[in-house]
Amino acid sequence: MTLPVRLIAVDIDGTLIDSTLDIPPANLKALRRAHxxxxxxxxxxxxxxxxxxxxxxxxxxxxxxxxxxxxITRSTSVKLHYADMxxxxxxxxxxxxxxxxxxxxxxxxxxxxxxxxxxxxxxxxGSNIQRWIDKNRMYIAEVAPIAAALVCDPVQAMFCGxxxxxxxxELRLKDGTLDHEISVLKTQYDHRDLCILDVLRHxxxxxxxxxxxxxxxxxxxxxxxxxxxxxxxxxxxxFAGFPFVMANASEDLKQNGWPVxxxxxxxxxxxxxxxxxxxxxx
Length: 282
Prior knowledge:
With 282 residues, this protein is α/β, with parallel strands linked by helices. Helix content is 29%, strand content 22%.
């Protein structure tokens, strides 16, 4: 059987999972069917690897997980394939440059213990990520000033807050000072009034990590399918030969000419995967 795709890359939040924060049965069925047909599956997420694993484990088979917006590529059996860390020196300069946003800063490190996530004070990050704080509390250390936690290369830095609060933060990150040292990827949920600005090593993104993984598997970009819903998925969608945008994505993301599948409450992942496996393009 000749399939149009050999690799399917799926974002998690706003894409694979619905408002229950679990994978709907139809999405599970579609990805398991693709896997049984010999298609490689990869979840590509802004989450840390550990925070993504409860979702990944629902699929019931081993596969690759690209986490932290492309910085870490690790299998669900914990085998590390690639780590694209933010250099410690760059992270120091970033903290200095973004000092006025220290209360909104989060540093993450590639370890599974307290200190994997570092903030200055959890209470200053605001209620719109309280659930994330609660679920990750055992990994969070409070260090002030936050730059003092930079004893090794972090995976990334993150600035998060309300949409209005993060507008000046985004402008400062993109003022040219660190242009050749960092990549800035935005995830925005207007209905939650939440904006997350992830800062990674220059050139690092979901797209670059997916391209590297496809090359490792010997899969051409024309044989790659990608499904996403947010700004941090753009590079991944640009790389894929079969890109799909969720119906719940922002309107400007849906203006790029990519096919639009159903929303995450209506199992848009399943709809897109079944269409492509059947040779249908929306």
